[in-house]
Amino acid sequence: MASTTDYKIDFTNFYNIINNELKSTPTTRAAVNPSTLAPLPAVPVSTKADVDAAVSAAKAAFPSWRDTPIEKRAALLNTFADAIMANFMDFASLLALEGKPPTAAQFEVDFAVKHLKGTAQLRLDDEVIEDNEEKLTKIRYTPLGVGVGIVPFNYPFFLGLGKMGPAVLAGNAFIWKPSPYTPNTALKLVELAAKIFPPGVVQALSGEEDLGPWLTAHPDIRKISFTGSTPTGKKVMAACASTLKRVTLELGGNDAAIVCDDVNLDEVVPKVALGCFNNAGQVCVDIKRLFVHEKIYDQFLAKMVEVVKTFKFGGSEDTEGAFFPPVQNAMQFEKVKELFSSIEKEGLKPVIGGEVEAEAGAKKGYYFKPTIIDNPPENSRIVQEEPFGPIVPVVKWVGGEDEVVRMANNTDMGLGASVWSKDLEKAERIARRLEAGSLWINTHQDLAPNVPFGGFKQSGMGHDWGVIGLKGWCNTQSLMTRRSGGMF
Protein backbone atom coordinates (compact mmCIF):
# COMPACT_ATOMS: atom_id res chain seq x y z
CA MET A 1 0.00 0.00 0.00
CA ALA A 2 1.32 3.42 -0.94
CA SER A 3 2.16 5.89 1.81
CA THR A 4 1.04 9.50 1.82
CA THR A 5 4.55 10.58 0.82
CA ASP A 6 4.06 8.76 -2.50
CA TYR A 7 1.35 11.26 -3.31
CA LYS A 8 3.24 14.48 -2.64
CA ILE A 9 3.53 16.65 -5.73
CA ASP A 10 5.39 19.81 -6.68
CA PHE A 11 3.27 22.96 -6.80
CA THR A 12 5.74 25.10 -8.77
CA ASN A 13 5.18 24.28 -12.43
CA PHE A 14 1.91 23.59 -14.19
CA TYR A 15 1.12 21.27 -17.09
CA ASN A 16 -1.72 19.70 -19.00
CA ILE A 17 -2.19 16.07 -18.04
CA ILE A 18 -2.72 13.83 -21.07
CA ASN A 19 -2.61 10.04 -20.71
CA ASN A 20 -0.99 10.46 -17.27
CA GLU A 21 1.88 12.48 -18.74
CA LEU A 22 2.72 16.11 -17.93
CA LYS A 23 2.50 18.09 -21.15
CA SER A 24 3.66 21.64 -21.81
CA THR A 25 2.48 23.82 -24.70
CA PRO A 26 4.25 26.38 -26.90
CA THR A 27 2.06 29.15 -25.50
CA THR A 28 1.24 29.79 -21.86
CA ARG A 29 -0.95 32.24 -19.98
CA ALA A 30 -1.34 33.39 -16.38
CA ALA A 31 -4.48 33.99 -14.38
CA VAL A 32 -4.60 36.77 -11.79
CA ASN A 33 -4.91 36.74 -8.03
CA PRO A 34 -8.06 38.89 -7.58
CA SER A 35 -7.04 40.12 -4.14
CA THR A 36 -3.66 41.51 -5.25
CA LEU A 37 -3.88 41.59 -9.08
CA ALA A 38 -0.56 39.73 -9.18
CA PRO A 39 -0.18 37.07 -11.89
CA LEU A 40 -0.36 33.41 -10.91
CA PRO A 41 2.07 30.79 -12.24
CA ALA A 42 1.76 30.27 -15.98
CA VAL A 43 -0.38 27.42 -17.32
CA PRO A 44 -0.65 25.78 -20.75
CA VAL A 45 -2.76 27.08 -23.60
CA SER A 46 -4.07 23.92 -25.23
CA THR A 47 -4.17 23.45 -28.99
CA LYS A 48 -6.63 21.47 -31.06
CA ALA A 49 -3.97 18.75 -31.24
CA ASP A 50 -3.91 18.57 -27.44
CA VAL A 51 -7.67 18.09 -27.42
CA ASP A 52 -7.44 15.30 -29.97
CA ALA A 53 -4.66 13.60 -28.02
CA ALA A 54 -6.59 13.73 -24.74
CA VAL A 55 -9.78 12.44 -26.32
CA SER A 56 -7.91 9.61 -28.06
CA ALA A 57 -6.30 8.61 -24.76
CA ALA A 58 -9.65 8.73 -22.96
CA LYS A 59 -11.32 6.70 -25.70
CA ALA A 60 -8.59 4.06 -25.48
CA ALA A 61 -8.84 3.92 -21.68
CA PHE A 62 -12.62 3.66 -21.57
CA PRO A 63 -13.24 -0.07 -22.31
CA SER A 64 -10.95 -1.31 -19.56
CA TRP A 65 -12.19 1.30 -17.08
CA ARG A 66 -15.82 0.52 -17.92
CA ASP A 67 -15.16 -3.14 -17.14
CA THR A 68 -13.38 -2.39 -13.87
CA PRO A 69 -15.70 -3.34 -10.98
CA ILE A 70 -17.34 -0.33 -9.37
CA GLU A 71 -15.88 -1.33 -6.00
CA LYS A 72 -12.39 -0.94 -7.47
CA ARG A 73 -13.31 2.39 -9.05
CA ALA A 74 -14.68 3.57 -5.69
CA ALA A 75 -11.52 2.43 -3.90
CA LEU A 76 -9.37 4.53 -6.24
CA LEU A 77 -11.60 7.55 -5.65
CA ASN A 78 -11.04 7.10 -1.91
CA THR A 79 -7.30 6.80 -2.47
CA PHE A 80 -7.44 10.01 -4.50
CA ALA A 81 -9.32 11.76 -1.68
CA ASP A 82 -6.66 10.66 0.81
CA ALA A 83 -3.91 11.84 -1.54
CA ILE A 84 -5.52 15.30 -1.73
CA MET A 85 -5.48 15.47 2.06
CA ALA A 86 -1.78 14.56 2.01
CA ASN A 87 -1.31 17.83 0.07
CA PHE A 88 -4.01 19.74 1.96
CA MET A 89 -2.19 22.96 2.80
CA ASP A 90 -0.55 23.20 -0.62
CA PHE A 91 -3.93 22.89 -2.32
CA ALA A 92 -5.55 25.35 0.09
CA SER A 93 -2.77 27.90 -0.41
CA LEU A 94 -3.02 27.61 -4.19
CA LEU A 95 -6.81 27.89 -4.07
CA ALA A 96 -6.46 31.03 -1.94
CA LEU A 97 -4.31 32.59 -4.66
CA GLU A 98 -7.18 31.93 -7.06
CA GLY A 99 -9.53 34.11 -5.06
CA LYS A 100 -10.37 33.20 -1.47
CA PRO A 101 -9.21 34.00 2.06
CA PRO A 102 -7.16 31.09 3.43
CA THR A 103 -9.87 29.96 5.84
CA ALA A 104 -12.42 29.80 3.03
CA ALA A 105 -9.97 27.97 0.78
CA GLN A 106 -9.29 25.40 3.48
CA PHE A 107 -13.02 24.91 3.96
CA GLU A 108 -13.52 24.31 0.23
CA VAL A 109 -10.76 21.70 0.05
CA ASP A 110 -12.05 19.88 3.12
CA PHE A 111 -15.67 19.98 1.95
CA ALA A 112 -14.71 18.80 -1.54
CA VAL A 113 -12.79 15.81 -0.18
CA LYS A 114 -15.68 14.79 2.07
CA HIS A 115 -18.02 15.16 -0.89
CA LEU A 116 -15.74 12.97 -3.01
CA LYS A 117 -15.67 10.28 -0.35
CA GLY A 118 -19.44 10.44 -0.12
CA THR A 119 -19.68 10.03 -3.88
CA ALA A 120 -17.51 6.92 -3.67
CA GLN A 121 -20.20 5.29 -1.51
CA LEU A 122 -22.87 5.54 -4.22
CA ARG A 123 -23.77 2.52 -6.35
CA LEU A 124 -25.62 1.90 -9.61
CA ASP A 125 -27.34 -1.44 -9.27
CA ASP A 126 -29.53 -3.10 -11.87
CA GLU A 127 -33.20 -2.38 -11.25
CA VAL A 128 -35.55 -5.34 -11.56
CA ILE A 129 -38.92 -4.16 -12.88
CA GLU A 130 -40.44 -7.54 -13.67
CA ASP A 131 -39.60 -10.98 -12.29
CA ASN A 132 -42.07 -13.83 -12.88
CA GLU A 133 -42.31 -17.28 -14.46
CA GLU A 134 -42.43 -15.85 -17.96
CA LYS A 135 -39.67 -13.26 -17.92
CA LEU A 136 -37.09 -11.25 -16.03
CA THR A 137 -36.74 -7.60 -16.99
CA LYS A 138 -34.02 -5.33 -15.69
CA ILE A 139 -32.88 -1.75 -16.22
CA ARG A 140 -29.13 -1.32 -16.43
CA TYR A 141 -27.00 1.82 -16.45
CA THR A 142 -23.91 1.66 -18.64
CA PRO A 143 -21.28 4.42 -18.84
CA LEU A 144 -21.32 6.75 -21.81
CA GLY A 145 -17.63 6.83 -22.72
CA VAL A 146 -15.58 10.03 -22.77
CA GLY A 147 -17.00 12.86 -20.66
CA VAL A 148 -15.91 16.46 -20.11
CA GLY A 149 -16.45 18.67 -17.09
CA ILE A 150 -16.43 22.42 -17.80
CA VAL A 151 -15.85 23.96 -14.39
CA PRO A 152 -16.56 27.56 -13.28
CA PHE A 153 -14.34 30.00 -11.39
CA ASN A 154 -16.30 30.43 -8.17
CA TYR A 155 -15.75 27.01 -6.55
CA PRO A 156 -13.21 25.44 -8.91
CA PHE A 157 -11.98 22.78 -6.49
CA PHE A 158 -15.32 21.54 -5.18
CA LEU A 159 -17.32 21.78 -8.40
CA GLY A 160 -14.56 20.15 -10.43
CA LEU A 161 -14.36 17.16 -8.11
CA GLY A 162 -18.15 17.15 -8.03
CA LYS A 163 -18.11 16.35 -11.76
CA MET A 164 -15.03 14.15 -11.92
CA GLY A 165 -16.05 11.85 -9.04
CA PRO A 166 -19.45 10.72 -10.38
CA ALA A 167 -18.18 10.49 -13.97
CA VAL A 168 -15.30 8.22 -13.03
CA LEU A 169 -17.30 6.17 -10.52
CA ALA A 170 -19.91 5.45 -13.21
CA GLY A 171 -17.14 4.08 -15.46
CA ASN A 172 -16.40 6.99 -17.80
CA ALA A 173 -13.10 8.52 -18.80
CA PHE A 174 -13.05 12.18 -17.79
CA ILE A 175 -11.42 15.36 -19.12
CA TRP A 176 -11.36 18.34 -16.74
CA LYS A 177 -11.60 21.74 -18.41
CA PRO A 178 -11.06 24.46 -15.76
CA SER A 179 -12.07 28.09 -16.03
CA PRO A 180 -9.32 30.28 -17.54
CA TYR A 181 -9.61 32.36 -14.35
CA THR A 182 -8.87 29.42 -12.01
CA PRO A 183 -6.82 26.79 -13.84
CA ASN A 184 -4.02 26.14 -11.37
CA THR A 185 -5.68 23.98 -8.71
CA ALA A 186 -7.37 21.84 -11.37
CA LEU A 187 -4.09 21.03 -13.10
CA LYS A 188 -2.49 20.01 -9.81
CA LEU A 189 -5.48 17.90 -8.82
CA VAL A 190 -5.31 15.96 -12.06
CA GLU A 191 -1.52 15.69 -11.84
CA LEU A 192 -2.15 13.98 -8.53
CA ALA A 193 -4.89 11.82 -10.05
CA ALA A 194 -2.39 10.60 -12.64
CA LYS A 195 -0.51 8.88 -9.82
CA ILE A 196 -3.63 6.87 -8.94
CA PHE A 197 -5.86 6.23 -11.95
CA PRO A 198 -4.94 4.30 -15.11
CA PRO A 199 -3.68 6.37 -18.04
CA GLY A 200 -6.39 8.26 -19.87
CA VAL A 201 -9.05 7.93 -17.18
CA VAL A 202 -8.61 11.41 -15.68
CA GLN A 203 -7.03 14.20 -17.75
CA ALA A 204 -6.92 17.99 -17.69
CA LEU A 205 -6.62 20.66 -20.36
CA SER A 206 -6.30 24.39 -19.72
CA GLY A 207 -6.59 27.03 -22.36
CA GLU A 208 -8.29 30.06 -23.82
CA GLU A 209 -11.87 30.64 -24.96
CA ASP A 210 -11.50 28.34 -27.97
CA LEU A 211 -10.95 25.26 -25.81
CA GLY A 212 -14.58 24.85 -24.80
CA PRO A 213 -15.91 24.90 -28.39
CA TRP A 214 -13.29 22.34 -29.46
CA LEU A 215 -14.51 20.00 -26.74
CA THR A 216 -18.22 20.49 -27.34
CA ALA A 217 -17.74 19.86 -31.08
CA HIS A 218 -15.56 16.77 -30.76
CA PRO A 219 -17.37 13.71 -32.17
CA ASP A 220 -15.78 11.23 -29.73
CA ILE A 221 -16.93 13.02 -26.58
CA ARG A 222 -20.21 11.60 -25.31
CA LYS A 223 -21.14 14.09 -22.57
CA ILE A 224 -20.50 17.65 -21.46
CA SER A 225 -21.24 18.60 -17.86
CA PHE A 226 -21.22 22.39 -17.64
CA THR A 227 -21.59 24.75 -14.71
CA GLY A 228 -21.78 28.45 -15.50
CA SER A 229 -24.02 31.21 -16.76
CA THR A 230 -27.31 30.61 -18.53
CA PRO A 231 -26.26 32.41 -21.76
CA THR A 232 -23.12 30.29 -22.03
CA GLY A 233 -25.07 27.16 -21.14
CA LYS A 234 -27.36 27.75 -24.08
CA LYS A 235 -24.33 27.96 -26.37
CA VAL A 236 -22.96 24.71 -24.92
CA MET A 237 -26.28 22.97 -25.51
CA ALA A 238 -26.48 24.23 -29.09
CA ALA A 239 -22.91 23.12 -29.79
CA CYS A 240 -23.59 19.64 -28.43
CA ALA A 241 -26.65 19.19 -30.63
CA SER A 242 -24.68 18.44 -33.80
CA THR A 243 -23.24 15.25 -32.27
CA LEU A 244 -26.16 14.52 -29.92
CA LYS A 245 -23.93 14.67 -26.86
CA ARG A 246 -25.57 14.26 -23.49
CA VAL A 247 -25.49 17.49 -21.50
CA THR A 248 -25.92 18.42 -17.88
CA LEU A 249 -26.30 22.15 -17.41
CA GLU A 250 -26.12 23.74 -13.97
CA LEU A 251 -26.73 27.37 -14.76
CA GLY A 252 -27.60 30.67 -13.12
CA GLY A 253 -29.77 31.02 -10.06
CA ASN A 254 -31.86 33.79 -8.57
CA ASP A 255 -32.64 32.00 -5.33
CA ALA A 256 -35.47 33.23 -3.14
CA ALA A 257 -35.52 32.99 0.65
CA ILE A 258 -38.89 33.48 2.35
CA VAL A 259 -38.79 34.54 5.99
CA CYS A 260 -42.00 34.10 7.98
CA ASP A 261 -43.01 36.33 10.88
CA ASP A 262 -42.44 33.70 13.60
CA VAL A 263 -38.68 33.26 13.26
CA ASN A 264 -36.13 33.88 15.99
CA LEU A 265 -34.20 36.83 14.55
CA ASP A 266 -31.06 36.19 16.60
CA GLU A 267 -30.83 32.69 15.14
CA VAL A 268 -32.06 33.25 11.61
CA VAL A 269 -30.54 36.57 10.52
CA PRO A 270 -26.86 35.49 10.75
CA LYS A 271 -27.64 32.33 8.77
CA VAL A 272 -29.55 34.24 6.10
CA ALA A 273 -26.81 36.89 5.84
CA LEU A 274 -24.24 34.16 5.32
CA GLY A 275 -26.50 32.61 2.68
CA CYS A 276 -26.64 35.95 0.86
CA PHE A 277 -22.96 36.92 0.98
CA ASN A 278 -21.11 33.61 0.99
CA ASN A 279 -18.11 34.00 -1.34
CA ALA A 280 -19.19 37.63 -1.93
CA GLY A 281 -22.40 36.44 -3.56
CA GLN A 282 -20.51 34.33 -6.11
CA VAL A 283 -22.40 31.11 -5.51
CA CYS A 284 -25.13 29.87 -7.83
CA VAL A 285 -27.30 28.98 -4.82
CA ASP A 286 -26.56 32.01 -2.69
CA ILE A 287 -29.73 33.80 -1.60
CA LYS A 288 -30.28 36.40 -4.31
CA ARG A 289 -33.79 37.64 -3.34
CA LEU A 290 -34.94 37.89 0.26
CA PHE A 291 -38.66 38.17 1.07
CA VAL A 292 -39.33 39.12 4.70
CA HIS A 293 -42.78 39.31 6.27
CA GLU A 294 -43.94 42.87 6.93
CA LYS A 295 -44.47 42.21 10.68
CA ILE A 296 -40.74 41.69 11.25
CA TYR A 297 -39.31 43.49 8.23
CA ASP A 298 -37.82 46.53 10.01
CA GLN A 299 -36.29 44.50 12.83
CA PHE A 300 -34.93 41.90 10.42
CA LEU A 301 -33.36 44.53 8.16
CA ALA A 302 -31.73 46.37 11.04
CA LYS A 303 -30.25 43.19 12.45
CA MET A 304 -29.02 42.05 9.05
CA VAL A 305 -27.14 45.33 8.63
CA GLU A 306 -25.51 44.77 12.04
CA VAL A 307 -24.40 41.28 11.01
CA VAL A 308 -23.01 42.36 7.64
CA LYS A 309 -20.97 45.12 9.29
CA THR A 310 -19.00 42.37 11.07
CA PHE A 311 -17.83 40.77 7.82
CA LYS A 312 -14.09 41.12 7.44
CA PHE A 313 -12.60 41.58 3.98
CA GLY A 314 -9.85 39.23 2.97
CA GLY A 315 -7.85 37.75 0.16
CA SER A 316 -5.07 35.23 -0.25
CA GLU A 317 -2.76 36.96 2.25
CA ASP A 318 -5.30 37.44 5.01
CA THR A 319 -5.68 34.97 7.82
CA GLU A 320 -7.85 34.98 10.90
CA GLY A 321 -11.44 36.08 10.56
CA ALA A 322 -11.35 37.01 6.88
CA PHE A 323 -14.71 36.13 5.32
CA PHE A 324 -15.51 38.51 2.48
CA PRO A 325 -13.40 37.88 -0.65
CA PRO A 326 -13.02 39.96 -3.78
CA VAL A 327 -15.00 39.31 -6.93
CA GLN A 328 -12.95 36.68 -8.70
CA ASN A 329 -11.98 38.34 -11.97
CA ALA A 330 -12.06 41.58 -13.99
CA MET A 331 -14.90 40.43 -16.24
CA GLN A 332 -17.18 39.70 -13.30
CA PHE A 333 -16.05 42.87 -11.55
CA GLU A 334 -17.25 44.96 -14.51
CA LYS A 335 -20.57 43.09 -14.64
CA VAL A 336 -21.24 43.70 -10.96
CA LYS A 337 -20.09 47.32 -11.23
CA GLU A 338 -22.60 47.87 -14.03
CA LEU A 339 -25.40 46.42 -11.88
CA PHE A 340 -24.35 48.68 -9.01
CA SER A 341 -24.95 51.62 -11.33
CA SER A 342 -28.66 50.74 -11.37
CA ILE A 343 -28.93 51.72 -7.69
CA GLU A 344 -28.78 55.40 -8.53
CA LYS A 345 -30.49 55.11 -11.92
CA GLU A 346 -33.53 53.36 -10.43
CA GLY A 347 -33.60 55.38 -7.21
CA LEU A 348 -33.02 52.37 -4.98
CA LYS A 349 -32.23 52.66 -1.29
CA PRO A 350 -29.11 50.89 -0.01
CA VAL A 351 -29.08 50.53 3.78
CA ILE A 352 -25.46 49.43 3.72
CA GLY A 353 -22.89 49.58 0.94
CA GLY A 354 -23.89 50.75 -2.49
CA GLU A 355 -20.40 51.79 -3.52
CA VAL A 356 -18.11 50.04 -5.93
CA GLU A 357 -14.88 49.95 -3.95
CA ALA A 358 -14.84 48.34 -0.57
CA GLU A 359 -13.09 49.71 2.47
CA ALA A 360 -10.29 47.25 2.13
CA GLY A 361 -7.34 49.39 3.15
CA ALA A 362 -4.42 49.12 0.81
CA LYS A 363 -5.92 46.22 -1.10
CA LYS A 364 -6.08 46.77 -4.81
CA GLY A 365 -8.14 43.76 -5.79
CA TYR A 366 -11.70 43.45 -7.09
CA TYR A 367 -13.49 44.41 -3.89
CA PHE A 368 -17.04 45.70 -3.38
CA LYS A 369 -18.81 46.74 -0.24
CA PRO A 370 -21.51 44.25 0.72
CA THR A 371 -24.75 45.96 -0.23
CA ILE A 372 -28.34 45.50 0.94
CA ILE A 373 -31.17 47.20 -0.96
CA ASP A 374 -34.22 48.16 1.10
CA ASN A 375 -37.51 47.01 -0.45
CA PRO A 376 -36.84 47.61 -4.15
CA PRO A 377 -39.67 47.31 -6.70
CA GLU A 378 -40.35 43.85 -8.02
CA ASN A 379 -39.42 44.92 -11.54
CA SER A 380 -36.05 46.43 -10.57
CA ARG A 381 -32.92 44.92 -12.05
CA ILE A 382 -31.59 43.83 -8.68
CA VAL A 383 -34.70 41.68 -8.16
CA GLN A 384 -34.96 40.39 -11.71
CA GLU A 385 -31.28 39.69 -12.46
CA GLU A 386 -28.71 37.48 -10.78
CA PRO A 387 -25.87 39.77 -9.69
CA PHE A 388 -23.29 37.08 -8.86
CA GLY A 389 -21.77 39.65 -6.58
CA PRO A 390 -22.25 41.11 -3.08
CA ILE A 391 -25.58 42.91 -3.50
CA VAL A 392 -28.93 41.57 -2.29
CA PRO A 393 -32.48 42.99 -2.30
CA VAL A 394 -34.63 42.61 0.81
CA VAL A 395 -38.29 42.81 -0.22
CA LYS A 396 -41.15 43.42 2.20
CA TRP A 397 -43.63 40.55 2.02
CA VAL A 398 -47.11 42.06 2.30
CA GLY A 399 -50.10 39.72 2.09
CA GLY A 400 -50.57 36.00 2.42
CA GLU A 401 -48.72 32.91 1.24
CA ASP A 402 -50.09 33.16 -2.28
CA GLU A 403 -48.45 36.54 -2.76
CA VAL A 404 -44.99 35.57 -1.52
CA VAL A 405 -45.06 32.37 -3.57
CA ARG A 406 -45.98 34.41 -6.64
CA MET A 407 -43.08 36.81 -6.04
CA ALA A 408 -40.61 34.01 -5.41
CA ASN A 409 -41.63 32.20 -8.60
CA ASN A 410 -41.61 35.38 -10.69
CA THR A 411 -38.28 34.62 -12.37
CA ASP A 412 -36.93 32.63 -15.29
CA MET A 413 -34.55 30.92 -12.85
CA GLY A 414 -35.27 28.03 -10.54
CA LEU A 415 -32.13 26.64 -8.93
CA GLY A 416 -32.77 26.78 -5.17
CA ALA A 417 -35.11 28.36 -2.63
CA SER A 418 -35.62 28.31 1.13
CA VAL A 419 -38.36 28.97 3.68
CA TRP A 420 -37.66 30.04 7.26
CA SER A 421 -40.25 29.42 9.97
CA LYS A 422 -40.76 27.74 13.35
CA ASP A 423 -43.93 26.20 11.92
CA LEU A 424 -42.46 23.34 9.90
CA GLU A 425 -45.80 22.30 8.44
CA LYS A 426 -46.38 25.81 7.10
CA ALA A 427 -42.80 26.05 5.84
CA GLU A 428 -43.12 22.82 3.89
CA ARG A 429 -46.50 23.87 2.51
CA ILE A 430 -44.91 27.04 1.12
CA ALA A 431 -41.76 25.25 -0.05
CA ARG A 432 -43.70 22.66 -2.07
CA ARG A 433 -45.15 25.47 -4.18
CA LEU A 434 -41.79 26.95 -5.13
CA GLU A 435 -40.37 26.36 -8.60
CA ALA A 436 -36.79 25.34 -7.84
CA GLY A 437 -34.73 22.18 -8.01
CA SER A 438 -33.47 22.34 -4.43
CA LEU A 439 -35.72 23.37 -1.56
CA TRP A 440 -34.52 23.98 1.99
CA ILE A 441 -36.36 24.69 5.23
CA ASN A 442 -34.51 26.67 7.91
CA THR A 443 -31.26 26.35 5.98
CA HIS A 444 -29.91 27.24 2.55
CA GLN A 445 -27.31 25.82 0.12
CA ASP A 446 -27.04 22.69 2.27
CA LEU A 447 -25.46 20.26 -0.22
CA ALA A 448 -24.62 16.56 0.02
CA PRO A 449 -23.09 13.97 -2.34
CA ASN A 450 -26.11 11.64 -2.05
CA VAL A 451 -28.66 14.38 -2.88
CA PRO A 452 -29.24 15.28 -6.56
CA PHE A 453 -28.64 18.88 -7.52
CA GLY A 454 -30.17 20.61 -10.54
CA GLY A 455 -32.47 23.41 -11.58
CA PHE A 456 -35.87 24.24 -13.00
CA LYS A 457 -36.55 26.55 -15.94
CA GLN A 458 -33.46 28.40 -17.22
CA SER A 459 -31.36 27.28 -14.28
CA GLY A 460 -30.41 24.19 -16.23
CA MET A 461 -31.21 20.61 -17.06
CA GLY A 462 -30.09 17.30 -15.64
CA HIS A 463 -28.55 16.72 -12.24
CA ASP A 464 -25.21 16.41 -10.55
CA TRP A 465 -24.66 14.14 -7.53
CA GLY A 466 -26.67 11.40 -5.93
CA VAL A 467 -27.72 8.25 -7.75
CA ILE A 468 -29.69 10.43 -10.18
CA GLY A 469 -26.48 12.29 -10.98
CA LEU A 470 -24.65 9.00 -11.56
CA LYS A 471 -27.37 7.94 -13.96
CA GLY A 472 -26.75 11.14 -15.88
CA TRP A 473 -23.30 9.76 -16.75
CA CYS A 474 -24.87 6.58 -18.16
CA ASN A 475 -26.97 5.15 -20.92
CA THR A 476 -30.18 3.52 -19.75
CA GLN A 477 -30.47 -0.04 -21.05
CA SER A 478 -33.33 -2.52 -20.72
CA LEU A 479 -32.47 -6.23 -20.52
CA MET A 480 -35.24 -8.82 -20.85
CA THR A 481 -34.82 -12.57 -20.41
CA ARG A 482 -37.74 -14.68 -21.71
CA ARG A 483 -38.20 -17.71 -19.47
CA SER A 484 -41.28 -19.20 -21.13
CA GLY A 485 -43.90 -18.39 -23.72
CA GLY A 486 -43.65 -17.09 -27.27
CA MET A 487 -42.47 -13.82 -28.71
CA PHE A 488 -45.79 -12.06 -28.25
Automatic annotation (TrEMBL):
GO terms for molecular function: aldehyde dehydrogenase (NAD+) activity. Its EC number is 1.2.1.3. The keyword Oxidoreductase applies. Keywords: Oxidoreductase. The keyword Oxidoreductase applies. CDD domains: ALDH_AldA-AAD23400. PROSITE patterns: ALDEHYDE_DEHYDR_GLU. Belongs to the aldehyde dehydrogenase family. This is aldehyde dehydrogenase (NAD(+)). It comes from Neurospora crassa (strain ATCC 24698 / 74-OR23-1A / CBS 708.71 / DSM 1257 / FGSC 987).
